[in-house]
Amino acid sequence: MNVIWARSVVSLVLLAIACAAVGALLNVRAALILAIVVLVVQSFIGTYHKQRLWRLLDAPVYGEVPSAPGIWGEIYYRLHKLAKRWHAQVRQVEQQHSRFIQAIQASPNGVAMLDDHDQIEWCNAISEVHFGLDAKRDLRQHIIHLVRQPDFVRYLNSHHYDEMLIMRGMGDKRQNVLSVQVFPYGENRKLVLSQDITELERTDAMRRDFVANVSHELKTPLTVLSGFLETMRELPLSEAERTRYLELMEQQAGRMRHIVSDLLVLATLEGDGKLPSDQMVDMRAVIRHLQDDAESLSGDRHRISFDADEGLTVTGVETEILSALGNLVTNAIRYTPDGGKIHVDWSATGGAAVFSVTDSGLGIPAADIPRLTERFYRVDRSRSRDTGGTGLGLAIVKHVLQRHDAQLEVKSEVGKGSTFTVRFPVSRTTRRQPAPV
Q1: Beta-strand (E) ranges in 157-249?
Q2: How far is it, in rounded angstroms, from Cα 142 to Cα 156?
Q3: Has residue 437 been placed in a domain?
Q4: Most CB atoms within 10 A, among 46, 125, 152, 359?
Q5: Rounded-to-10 torsion of CA 249, 255, 257, 262
Q6: How far apart are CA 320 and CA 403, in angstroms?
Q7: How far is CA 154 from the centre of its chain?
């Protein structure tokens, strides 16, 4: 017997005892009147609490516990406990749902959920960017009406989603490349995952160009070497001709060594994830080294001048800085005709160290300046080969300067020369203390 039946039986027993006592003291009529009054009052109380419970169930207010005597108080209390437990479960589900949505929003991939009619049920912010959607405005819109690229329409309607779809011309500027794949789930619903592979495509293109350029650059000297070897093996040559051919072969071998050496330097710079040290560079020695190399390479064919603030220096890796600045000076000498001027300046501007190389050479067309630091890019390929350039010097300069937080600026005018300027940040600029007398 549960508590409700027990309390009802006890209530009836007490009413019977009370009525019997009243009947014994007064009469049977008084006992019947008492019983009727008590039962009517209990009926009204029960009806009142039933209506109260109805209203509570129809529009529940969490946290509200109606007070009532007897069994109704117990009912309200148990109902409150049940509502509290349900509320805790709902809160837990809502928190899990919120965390799930936050996780999808944090994903670098686009996620769009479609119903059984290919209408948008939900999409994250990345998917909005990829397809130009609006999660609120486009809710319950057919995705084909919003993403109208023919390839996507055919892919979605094909129902064959084993392979990804590559979509080009996406995004705000219509320059992005997306990888899209559909995953069916549930009752004819679909999950559309998208990934921006623009940078990956660009990297693959650069890799293909790099391999093609390396193959082309090494193929020419190898072809020359092979031809000279065949000539020396099959034709009778005089000593002078043999000497000339050997010199040419040595030049081609040296060119291949320079290419391989520069490629190894680039690989080292790109593979070294450690930041350059804060060790002070001996810029006086670097400038002297640059001046000696410039005069040796020029052979008195140019008018070379150096202006250097000997107390000014920077922090970083001395060998890397020497390699980068040396490439700039070497290029100025190689691409300046005989009799031209070359001026190198090392000074402070606005608290930052600035290295500049100005020449009176051939100059660079404006369209070529943004591409100068690309590997194997040359403004004039034939002249670059004649001067011994590998096409990797400015790529090395770019990587060294990036590692040292420095910037490269190029100003040039065809027929009037060029100025290459390197600006080191103030954080890496310092001054060497003068030696004690």
Answers
A1: 165-170, 176-185, 189-196
A2: 12
A3: no
A4: 359
A5: 180
A6: 9
A7: 30
Cα Rg, the chain, nearest whole Å: 43
Return the number of other C-beta atoms located less than 10 Å from residue 63's C-beta: 9
Query: What residues make up the domain containing 320?
Result: 283-431
CATH number at residue 186: 3.30.450.20
- Give the total number of structural domains in the chain: 4
pTM of the model: 0.51
Query: Taking Cα atoms as reference points, which of 382, 431, 383, 423 lies closest to residue 402?
Result: 423
pLDDT for residue 387 is more than 60: no
CATH of the domain at 229: 1.10.287.130
Residues 16 and 96 in one domain: yes
Task: Give yes or no for a contact between 57 and 66, defined as CB atoms under 8 angstroms apart.
Answer: no
The encoded tokens of residue 390 equal 């590998």
Query: CA separation (Å) from 129 to 98, 152, 195?
Result: 21, 16, 11
How far is residue 356's CA from residue 413's CA, in Å, rounded to a whole number?
A: 16
Between 144-153, 176-185, 374-383, 400-409, the lowest mean confidence (pLDDT) is in 374-383
What is the enclosing helix (H) or strand (E) of 312?
A: strand 312-314
Mean pLDDT of the chain: 82
Say if 395 falls within a structural domain: yes
Q: How far apart are CA 320 and CA 401, in angstroms?
A: 9
Burial class of residue 201 in the structure, from the number of CB atoms within 10 Å of its CB (0-12 exposed, 13-18 middle, 19+ buried): middle
Asked whether residue 287 falls in the same domain as residue 426, the answer is yes
